[in-house]
């Protein structure tokens, strides 16, 4: 029957509308004990199940210096005595390049590796974690879910038909992840300032987080409907009111600083998050977001100019930019242009989009520039480490793209000489070398 899929689609639309139209809109949090009602207990139970799921599915880091760092800073900003025994504060890292952080109502607080990768110091991390703790301490998830139940009561039965992510419990958890109302976000921000000071960190680092989140290197971020960490206009507002409150505390903060009671925690932070920043940059390259990867690579190179791996990352980002200007021009930054780009991304493959870019007249100048920057970065890597497989591969591919076959053959041969036995790239390198040799021979035979 043609209409068979329709009711399901309608239900899905209803739940989608619910997500947007009925945000968890408790006006303010409650920082006193909140005894659980049966449906609240369900929310806590599902939160606990998610924790196991994150581990089982490999969504979270299970060891390493970044996780240690997050746990250490988290322990400093978490409440010493949670008001309810179902709030057990614990801190984790989600392996995702998307800059975000969230907390579940039972006290699980997560920061994404992609947010860690762009933060500058411990004080900023303390601000992020304290903000998330406040969502838990203020019972924002539980109160919001109660509010949503009152509003939509009858829809629960409908939503059960839609499977796991459609129940109100899960809608409450989705909100915990994608953000609450502006009032609750502001409440969490303002209370987080005091907590950060109590923990001995400098809260004046907090507005800087919003500035970092305002970065839109790809030029594709269109204002979302909810309040995530990276909601662009909301970030601006958050930066403004946070700065205002900090200005009002200036005298107190200065005297605390003189007494040595406000730590920024730069030392060690960069080293702890370094592998995550590199990984996030690689993930952005794999997702064809080279501008974002470039920003991360440039920051890495700035911090470690003598590291050949970061130079290779920089080279790879420039190479993958191909005909795209490294910084999107104003014409790309209008809402309409951003939407068009999002649509292209959804409907065309990466190579289709590349073909289109490379065929356009406007792409010629940026292409030439990007290739020159890529070559310079790879050559710098080889200067730092005379045999570097990543740099050799990059130069081989770059030379091939530029039609410099002799050079490309030379770099592939060098790569093969330096590659460890059994490297997964070996068959590819061998094939490229064969193709290049065949093409060069054919060219020679044509000559008289
Ligand atoms: Zn929040």
Describe the structure.
It is a single chain. This protein has 448 residues and is an all-alpha fold. The chain has 21 helices and 3 strands. The protein has helices spanning 6-21, 38-56, 65-77, 113-116, 122-137, 140-152, 155-160, 168-178, 182-198, 206-213, 232-248, 250-258, 269-286, 290-303, 308-321, 335-347, 350-359, 364-384, 389-401, 405-418, 426-446, and strands at residues 90-94, 101-103, 108-112. Strand 2 (101-103) and strand 3 form a beta hairpin. The protein starts with 5 loop residues before the first helix and ends with a helix. Bound molecules: zinc ion. Zinc ion binds at residues 131, 135, 179-180, 185, 188. Zinc ion is lined by residues 131, 135, 179-180, 185, 188.
């Amino acid at each position: 029957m043609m209409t068979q899929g329709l009711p399901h689609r309608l239900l899905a639309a209803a739940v989608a509308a619910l997500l947007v139209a009925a945000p968890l809109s408790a006006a303010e949090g409650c920082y006193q004990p909140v005894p659980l009602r049966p449906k609240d207990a369900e929310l806590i139970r599902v939160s606990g199940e998610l924790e196991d799921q994150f581990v089982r599915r490999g969504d979270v880091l299970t060891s390493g210096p970044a996780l240690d760092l997050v746990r250490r800073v988290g322990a400093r900003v978490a409440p010493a005595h949670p008001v309810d025994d179902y709030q057990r504060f614990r801190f984790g890292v989600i392996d995702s390049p998307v800059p975000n952080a969230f907390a579940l109502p039972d006290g699980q607080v997560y920061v994404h590796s992609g947010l860690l990768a762009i933060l500058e110091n411990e004080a900023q991390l303390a601000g992020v974690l304290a903000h998330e703790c406040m969502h838990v301490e203020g019972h924002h998830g539980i109160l919001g879910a109660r509010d949503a139940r009152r509003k939509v009561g009858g829809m629960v039965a409908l939503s059960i038909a839609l499977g796991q992510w459609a129940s109100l419990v899960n809608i409450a958890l989705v909100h915990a992840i994608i953000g609450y109302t502006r009032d609750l976000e502001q409440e969490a921000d303002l209370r987080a300032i005091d907590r950060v000071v109590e923990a001995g960190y400098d809260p004046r680092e907090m507005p800087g987080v919003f500035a970092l989140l305002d970065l839109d290197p790809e030029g594709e971020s269109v204002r979302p409907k909810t309040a995530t960490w990276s909601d662009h206009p909301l970030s601006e507002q958050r930066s403004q009111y946070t700065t205002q409150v900090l200005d009002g505390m200036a005298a107190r903060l200065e005297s605390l600083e003189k007494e040595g009671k406000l730590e920024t925690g730069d030392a060690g932070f960069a080293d702890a998050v370094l592998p995550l920043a590199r990984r996030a940059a690689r993930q952005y390259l794999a997702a064809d977001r080279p501008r974002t990867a470039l920003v991360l690579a440039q920051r890495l190179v700035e911090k470690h100019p003598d590291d050949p791996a970061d130079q290779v990352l920089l080279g790879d980002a420039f190479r993958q930019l191909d005909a795209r200007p490294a910084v999107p021009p104003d014409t790309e930054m209008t809402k309409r242009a951003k939407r068009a780009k999002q649509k292209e991304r959804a409907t065309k493959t990466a190579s289709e989009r590349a073909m289109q870019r490379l065929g356009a007249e406007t792409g010629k100048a940026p292409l030439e520039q990007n290739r020159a920057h890529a070559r310079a970065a790879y050559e710098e890597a080889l200067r730092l480490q005379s045999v570097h497989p990543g740099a050799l591969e990059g130069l081989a591919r770059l030379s091939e793209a530029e039609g410099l076959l002799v050079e490309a053959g030379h770099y592939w041969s060098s790569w093969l000489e330096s590659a460890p036995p059994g490297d997964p790239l070996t068959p590819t390198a061998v094939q490229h070398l064969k193709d290049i040799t065949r093409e060069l021979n054919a060219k020679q035979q044509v000559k008289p």
